[in-house]
Each structure stands twice: as structure tokens, then as C-alpha cells.
Specification:
With about 140 residues, this protein is an all-alpha fold. Helices cover about 70% and strands about 5% of the residues.
Amino acid sequence: MKKTLFTLSLLGLAFSGYLGGVKLFSGTCAFNQSCPYFLGYPACFYGFFMYVIITLAATKLVFCKRGNPLTALPVLYWTSLVGMIFSGYFVAGELPDITTCTLGFVMYIVIFVMTIMIKKNASQSDSTPEISDEVTE
């Protein structure tokens, strides 16, 4: 599940990077859609930076050899929650159309749910007593 989360973070990073790159270099929005703005900048720019944070945390979760990789879970949890709220705001304004914000919103939800599931599995494995091969008398 951790590798799937990592893969989703890379897909989100690539998708938001594409959207941001098209807007930055051409001045138009990709896929001939409206381009919502937040504080004077395209929403996809914010999405890209949130996916950078998510990708870095997912990288730590999957590939960390030192320390506890589970320390990345709060970062994944809070960043995906902020991403859901942020993109959900724009999705609500664009309904019933399915836009690029909708795709980002769905990805944030999936990452959020997967983070909760990984945390739940980790806490269950921590509370499960280890079975020893030794026989006690």
C-alpha cells in the first residue's frame, strides 16, 4: 500500500506539474478549461507544491532506511487534507463539470484514505504481541 501511495503521489506531481507548466509557459490553461485563481495565482501552482510535499513524505515512507519512516504519516495526512479542502472548494464552484480540479480532488481523497489505512495497520502491528519460538516452562 505504501508503494501505491508513492505512485499516486508521483502521478499527482506529474499531473499538477503539467498543468502548472502549461499555464506558466503558454499563459493558457491545459485542456481548454477554466483556470481558477487563488490569491492571484493559478490553483494548479498550489496543487503542485502540495504534491511536492506529499511526494517527499511518501518517498520517506517507502525508502527511508534510518529512523522511523512512519513519521511521514502526519505530513501526508495534513497535506492531503488541505489539498482536499482546497481543491474541493474549486470543484464545488465548477459542478456539475468534471475538471482538472476534480481529478486532483479525487487523488487527494485517495491519498488521505490510504494514509489513514497505513496508520491503522501500523498501530495494529505495534499492538500485536510478538510470538516467540521459545518454550517457557
